[in-house]
Amino acid sequence: MSEIIHIKSINEASKAFGFPTSKHPLVNVVWAKDMPDFSKYLGVKYNTELFAISLKDGIEGSMGYGRNSYDFTDGTMVFSKPNQVLSVEEKTISADAKGWMLAFHPDLIRKSVLGKTINQYNFFDYEVHEALHLSDNEKITLTDLVKKIETEINQNIDKHSQKLIISTIELILDYCNRFYDRQFYVRTNLHQDHVSEFETFLKGYFNSEKPTELGLPSVKYCGEQLNMSSNYLSDLLKKETGKSAKAHIYAFVVNKAKNKLLGSTESISEIAYDLGFDYPQHFSKLFKKQTGISPAKYRLSN
Known about the structure:
CATH topology of the largest domain: Jelly Rolls
CATH architecture of the largest domain: Sandwich
Distance between the termini: 59 Å
């Protein structure tokens, strides 16, 4: 197993990758044109304690991210958060590259509103092949905001600096939410296929022995089977159907339970175990929450 290099700070990241140093200890902006030759970093794995937002524009190559590796193209944005393992598979940078990376330490936002809400930006948990693909105007919008952060970093830090930097980062993230919504919309036909694949997966799962062997499928498990991150799968389903992945799973289970309650003589406990519940009372609680009536009353009233 190859060694994983742990990077704890902005300064350590600059030293490790040969980036220009930052005047601010908790945040840095690095432009693609200033990035070093990455050939000596190929295949090396890194685990950082930093958030990073990167625009790949004028950079060719692929990135390792978790267990997978994907090519990226111009206009691709990739997001990472602390304790995710990253690696550079191959990379070339053109002379006129316009890409950039914004990196910041959690301590920058820890006492701010963004520090409490950053986990709501689900794209930090997306896989690389679920990256955001920007239009030219969208690239300009985000790059202008990154330039504002760079300006704040390079001037004398005062009592306003941190607030302005954080609010600009939050604005970048909010724009990325908007652009992801646009991406979900324009790819609706592809995503409808994914919805169908998810429904087919649930049918196959619950028609097999897996519920009794593995229990109820988690959103993470479903995503892995469909080659998606759990957050991307859930966000995709919300955009297409209005319901999260977990809500889909629960709705499928309850509908399956209804059929069993009315079409078999199995006891409620047997039905619960067949559907993957460890305890019948957990099944009854979910059923009542979803339908407003207990399984026993549902069976008697139909």
